[in-house]
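DATA SHEET
Item: assembly model
Revision: 1
Owner: S.N.
Input lines:
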Amino acid sequence: AQSVTQPDIHITVSEGASLELRCNYSYGATPYLFWYVQSPGQGLQLLLKYFSGDTLVQGIKGFEAEFKRSQSSFNLRKPSVHWSDAAEYFCAVVPFDGGYNKLIFGAGTRLAVHP
Amino acid sequence: EPEVTQTPSHQVTQMGQEVILRCVPISNHLYFYWYRQILGQKVEFLVSFYNNEISEKSEIFDDQFSVERPDGSNFTLKIRSTKLEDSAMYFCASSLEGFEATEAFFGQGTRLTVV
């Protein structure tokens, strides 16, 4: 079945530590790939996206993500986490099943940052 | 910075009542969307709207739901005869073009509670 999977529901890291959030997708063709962040009481904000080309993409707030076709993955990384990064992170895809007008989201990973 | 605004931020309604959730998209955007997030679950696509008509909808978006752009600035989601399971956070989003071309901006959401 077509899906977007974020295997980690909760992750806790110490401030200054590195971070990797996992995302796998299951679609016949490589979809467009996105990472969004949702801070408490806020809407969803786009961190970065991948359509084609360089498989390492840079986003806002010091985040990056790497597309690996062989693993059907699009993991989000940050070398040094700040306390303000505590939020919920959503991987999302635009699947090529008839249109470009919908985002399919993963279940989200809630990130907690210890001082 | 332009933003998508949603009103109200929280609405409580009795089961069986009709509710209208309101959104003001970014002024020059052409594509409009509604998503919902039931507490503890993933963000789900409901509907996309372009050129004054629905361009795509999910299986969730049944006859109970309707969308409208009544005056060129507002974008509304109407839920007729609300059910308990309609309780969720509803997000509006807009984009200049489809997701393959431009970023979609999300509002802060309306929390709907059906009692």
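QC remark: Chain A has a mean pLDDT of 91.
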